[in-house]
Amino acid sequence: MPRKTASYREVVRFRISADEKAALSAVSEREGVPESEVIRRLLRADTGLFLPVADVDRPAIEGLQEQLRKIGGNLNQAVRAMNAGRVGYEPALAKSLAALLGMMQPMNRRLVAMSRAARARRSPDQ
Predict the structure, then answer these.
(1) What is the mean pLDDT of residues 66-73?
(2) What's the 3-state SS for the chain?
């Protein structure tokens, strides 16, 4: 399944000192990501937004996404069975299943945001 990429449409321009630029370049080189990604990570860390996870953690998060998908499928089947009359309708159970389904989508969105790969640093000749 293709991975949804982040949409970076907004552009921010600002001036920094030569020392700040050298520090930014050094971090960019060390982390292997573009300078914009370094700034983005600093912003995300300071504001509490999700940071990209390490490549070694990404499969674990993707595994959680798969488990959530399976749980969501089971919940959908249970709701369909109640709506179709194949099982007795229980108002409390219907309310609980609807609440669980409502929690699944935001959780999955968070996992997608966490597992999004950072952009790779371009070589100087690109």
Answers:
(1) 88
(2) CCCCCCCCCCCCCCCCCHHHHHHHHHHHHHHCCCHHHHHHHHHHHHHCCCCCCCCCCHHHHHHHHHHHHHHHHHHHHHHHHHHHCCCCCCHHHHHHHHHHHHHHHHHHHHHHHHHCCCCCCCCCCC
* Both tokens assigned to 66: 């798969």
Q: 114 vs 87, which has greater pLDDT? A: 87
Same-domain status, 34 and 61: no
Enter the tokens of residue 52.
């990209």
The answer to whether residues 42 and 96 belong to one domain is no
The whole-model pTM stands at 0.49
